[in-house]
């Protein structure tokens, strides 16, 4: 049977200032420092805002066939086993999974390098203009699993029917396996699933099942086993579909009201610990909101596990922000986007909380290059998971030419904020409702009327403690978000809103940050970076409490 090694903990560490990953000579390293994993090395005061390469080292007692899983590493670097380079990683926030022969049983050395340089170029995986901070390090858990020679690699459970409990089970194994036994937590006996060339598929009903919903987030388990191996996954039975301009959860229309949320904190960078994730989600749940857009990258397993159990709905999207026409037309960039998006879908497919897939926030979706790239991404997702709707957040609004490709129309708009900066003579709050109505009119064109419509971002920045009542004050932010939320709640056309944003988040210090990103932070959080609530937090809670009784 398999044996799992949790490699989280204290690792040896060395930081090479201003050196890229390609410049590392591993034979000269002395590893005089120690660091914890998960963690971002540039969240440590000594390395804050410094660019270079961090090299992590640990030792593992193991042998034979193993699976190494780095849940998230950034921004790019190499993986070495016993001094030999076995892989290159360059997909920040995306799981890296390697299966290889570890060698004879005994003590083995694992090294992971990670640089945090933000590279220019049309094929860059993290561009300098991305509006969130590019941390370096091993953001999330690292595990190593010793596998039997014949092993089960993956198990996926796709719910099909909430009336019968029908699910589609898909398994992937080593090629020698011809059958896998499937045992649900509510079943008395296992069901055989035939396997050919490493893949098997079976439709069956879960006995004595309970439906997953926001009110009753019931979960089930499925154990797949052979004589030599077993793998257990958790799933929920629920359906999500788009019909007649509505989003249906278990066949019933649902209004999504919630927040965009970055995995970011001043003390931890992108390596947000599980307890902090829990307290964030507990705040969101207690407020009365039901929806989180995980911006703008794949979310952690811990976050999705908690949302599964708390009944929170998630829009999960792959890494991308403001990508240009040139990038979207670049073949290497497209390959990267398809690869990391596929990895996201495969990693999160069993989470019932994930109700839609997304990608490429605010890209050049008003161009032919954008249409081609988005079409590729949609095909990639649908080949892996036809059960969930697809969307992306557009800021091209009426000029967008890619809405025909997706299932949900999602638009970012900042009436009363960025437009107010351009015209200070007019009253900013008065622009909110007319702008949403204008977007609803666009989303109600004959070719789009059957697609649900979401405001994917809307908001205003506020400096905590500023009570002047004008822009940047807590009052202005609270008023703007209240106006938007009330309108969305009452609108028959809108299926929801993801307000921008849950908490302040660190961003990259660029020239324009002097004007719009004071302190190097995006200050549009309804709570600040330390989770201290601004006026808007309670204001939205009061609005939702008022509407919950209607």
Question: How do you describe this structure in short?
Answer:
The chain is an alpha+beta fold. Helix content is 21%, strand content 31%.
Overview features:
single chain, alpha+beta, Jelly Rolls, Immunoglobulin-like, 8-stranded parallel beta sheet, 7-stranded antiparallel beta sheet
Q: What does the model show?
A:
- With 550 residues, the chain is of the alpha+beta class.
- Among the domains are: 3-146, Sandwich (Jelly Rolls), CATH 2.60.120.260; 152-240, Immunoglobulins (Immunoglobulin-like, Sandwich), CATH 2.60.40.10; 417-550, Glycosidases (TIM Barrel).
- The chain is built from ten helices and 33 strands.
- It has an eight-stranded parallel sheet, with helices on one face. A seven-stranded antiparallel sheet has the order 14-15-18-17-16-19-20, with no helix packed on it. Strands 3-2-5-11-8-9 form a six-stranded antiparallel sheet, with no helix packed on it.
- The longest helix is centred in the middle third of the chain and has 18 residues, at 331-348.
- The radius of gyration is 24 Å and the shape is globular.
């Amino acid at each position: 049977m398999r044996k799992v090694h949790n490699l989280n903990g204290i690792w040896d560490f060395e930081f090479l200032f201003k050196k890229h990953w390609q410049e590392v000579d591993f034979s000269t390293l002395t590893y005089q420092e120690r660091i914890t994993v998960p963690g971002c090395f540039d969240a440590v005061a000594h390395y804050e805002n410094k660019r270079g390469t961090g090299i992590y080292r640990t030792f593992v007692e193991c042998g034979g066939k193993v699976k190494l899983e780095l849940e998230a590493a950034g921004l790019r670097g190499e993986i070495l086993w016993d001094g030999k380079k076995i892989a290159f990683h360059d997909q920040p926030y995306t799981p890296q999974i390697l299966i290889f022969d570890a060698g004879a049983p005994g003590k083995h050395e694992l090294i992971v390098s990670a640089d945090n340089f933000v590279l220019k170029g049309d094929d860059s995986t993290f561009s300098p203009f991305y509006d969130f901070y590019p941390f370096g390090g091993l953001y999330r858990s690292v595990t190593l699993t010793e596998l039997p020679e014949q092993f089960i690699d993956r198990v996926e459970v796709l719910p099909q029917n909430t009336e019968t409990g029908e699910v589609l089970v898909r398994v992937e194994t080593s090629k020698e396996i011809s059958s896998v036994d499937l045992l649900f937590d509510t079943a008395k006996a296992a069901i055989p699933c035939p396997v050919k060339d490493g893949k098997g598929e079976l439709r069956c009903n879960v006995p004595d099942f309970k439906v997953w919903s926001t009110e009753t987030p019931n979960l089930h388990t499925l154990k797949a086993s052979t004589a030599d191996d077993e793998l257990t996954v958790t799933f929920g039975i629920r359906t999500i579909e788009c019909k007649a301009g509505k989003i249906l959860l278990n066949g019933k229309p649902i209004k999504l009201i919630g927040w965009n949320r970055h995995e970011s904190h001043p003390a931890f960078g992108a390596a947000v610990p599980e307890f902090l994730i829990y307290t964030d989600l507990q705040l969101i749940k207690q407020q009365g909101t039901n929806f989180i857009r995980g911006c703008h990258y794949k979310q952690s397993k811990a976050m999705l596990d908690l949302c599964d159990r708390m009944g929170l709905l998630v829009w999960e999207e792959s890494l991308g922000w403001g990508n240009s026409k040139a990038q979207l037309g670049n073949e290497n960039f497209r390959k990267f986007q398809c690869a990391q998006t596929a990895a996201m879908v495969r990693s999160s497919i069993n989470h019932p909380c994930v109700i839609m897939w997304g990608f490429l926030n605010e890209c050049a979706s008003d161009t032919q290059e954008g249409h081609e790239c988005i079409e590729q991404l949609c095909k990639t997702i649908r080949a892996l998971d036809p059960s969930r709707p697809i969307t992306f957040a557009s800021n091209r609004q009426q000029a967008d030419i890619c809405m025909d490709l997706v299932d949900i129309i999602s638009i970012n708009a900042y009436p009363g904020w960025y437009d107010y900066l351009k015209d200070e003579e007019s009253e900013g709050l008065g622009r909110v409702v007319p702008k949403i109505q204008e977007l609803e009119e666009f989303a109600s064109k004959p070719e789009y009327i059957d697609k649900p419509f979401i405001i994917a971002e809307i908001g205003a920045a506020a400096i905590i403690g500023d009570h002047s009542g004008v822009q940047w004050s807590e009052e202005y932010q609270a008023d703007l978000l209240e106006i938007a939320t009330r309108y969305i709640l009452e609108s028959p056309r809108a299926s929801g809103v993801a307000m921008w944003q849950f908490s302040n988040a660190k961003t990259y210090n660029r020239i324009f940050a002097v004007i719009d990103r004071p302190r190097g932070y995006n200050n549009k959080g309804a709570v600040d970076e330390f989770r201290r609530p601004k006026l808007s937090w309670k204001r939205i809670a009061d609005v939702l409490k008022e509407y919950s009784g209607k």
